[in-house]
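Write out the 3D structure for:
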Amino acid sequence: MPRIHIVLHEPEIPQNTGNIARTCAATGASLHLIRPLGFSVDDRKMRRAGLDYWDKLDVHFYDGLEDFLAGHPGAPLYCFTTKAQHGYTDVTYPDEVFLLFGKETRGLPEEFLLSRPESCVRIPMLNRLRSLNLSNSVAIAVYEVLRQHGFEGLQEVGALHDHVWGEGQL
């Protein structure tokens, strides 16, 4: 199973981070939060969006982008931005990967993006809007990495609540 690290640079909206935490818990990804955060990690809205998955989550905190980079020198890092030249599906993701996303209102710092254009990728969309929702973008990226690795470790099928599948229904 690939080791996916979701890195959020200064996230602002607690519900987005809660949804991302739930995606991380469901896929085995780690969550890295770079301060300042636009909310408290005890925020009711964030916890509610993440439901009861917080105890199943591998979460790390950093006091800025430099702190994060110092803790992961040479790590395979991909920066998701609407301004990138390359699509996110153009990349062959390694077994361990860090996917970096910027704050909801401004994205990642432009100076940072300019310093590493080869690692910048985008999710295609019409340019009439500023961007996709952050939690949706993270889910798209995580599942692309998982797809490239054959969804290793995620093949278990859930059960129906009140019924069982009959013959010929699968």
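The chain is about 30% helix and 20% strand.
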